[in-house]
Amino acid sequence: MFNVVLFEPEIPSNTGNIGRTCVVTGSRLHLIGLLGFSLGDDMLRRAGLGYWHSLDVTTYAGWEEFLAQNGLGETDERLHLLTKKARKTYAQATYADGDFLVFGKESTGLPEELLARAASRCERIPMLPDATTLKDAGEWAARVGREQSHEALRQDVCGNFVDPDDYRISALNLSNSAAIVLYEALRQTDFQGM
């Protein structure tokens, strides 16, 4: 069984989608720190559909509590810290039953200090650069109610173009990222039906 870990998730529909993916794959969901929503949020339940009541989910006040309750050290080989700031890709990693796939919050990812302390545990999902993927940045900006150019959109710490009122970024969203990495981990461990 894999463990999907969300560090301070901000968008309830992402967490709901990830929760649904956890249920259908027999994975556990761990939520760390301040959540950008209530666990009773309708958007969370709607995204989780009928699966939310079947989800094995645990919440933690912070990173240290998460590590302690799961018997982990910061550089434990069962940890896979997903970030855009890693050299190794998720497909180059080796996964084993019981591993923890850790994703940061939508707007800023995992904290820099955590990444620095556990650099050997960091992995990334390869993506095309914004210049290639955001050819329609003007249209995208207009869709969210702005008449801006590509350069006028704010960039987050990872270089994604962000609408601060909408949380849209040019990269994969959190639920897509979690599904991609989880399914690679399941493939490597001969998940039933793969």
From TrEMBL:
Its EC number is 2.1.1.207. InterPro entries: Alpha/beta_knot_MTases, SpoU_MeTrfase, TrmL, tRNA_m1G_MTases_N. It comes from the Bacteria. Its main location: cytoplasm. One of its GO terms (biological process) is wobble position ribose methylation. Pfam families: SpoU_methylase. It catalyses: 5-carboxymethylaminomethyluridine(34) in tRNA(Leu) + S-adenosyl-L-methionine = 5-carboxymethylaminomethyl-2'-O-methyluridine(34) in tRNA(Leu) + S-adenosyl-L-homocysteine + H(+); cytidine(34) in tRNA + S-adenosyl-L-methionine = 2'-O-methylcytidine(34) in tRNA + S-adenosyl-L-homocysteine + H(+). CDD domains: SpoU-like_TrmL. Gene3D superfamilies: 3.40.1280.10. It is an enzyme of class 2 (transferase). It is found in: Cytoplasm. Residues 2-132 form the tRNA/rRNA methyltransferase SpoU type domain. GO terms for cellular component: cytoplasm. One of its GO terms (molecular function) is RNA binding. Keywords: Cytoplasm, Methyltransferase, S-adenosyl-L-methionine, Transferase, tRNA processing. S-adenosyl-L-methionine binds at residues 82, 104, 125. Could methylate the ribose at the nucleotide 34 wobble position in tRNA. Belongs to the class IV-like SAM-binding methyltransferase superfamily. RNA methyltransferase TrmH family. TrmL subfamily. This is Putative tRNA (cytidine(34)-2'-O)-methyltransferase. The gene is cspR.
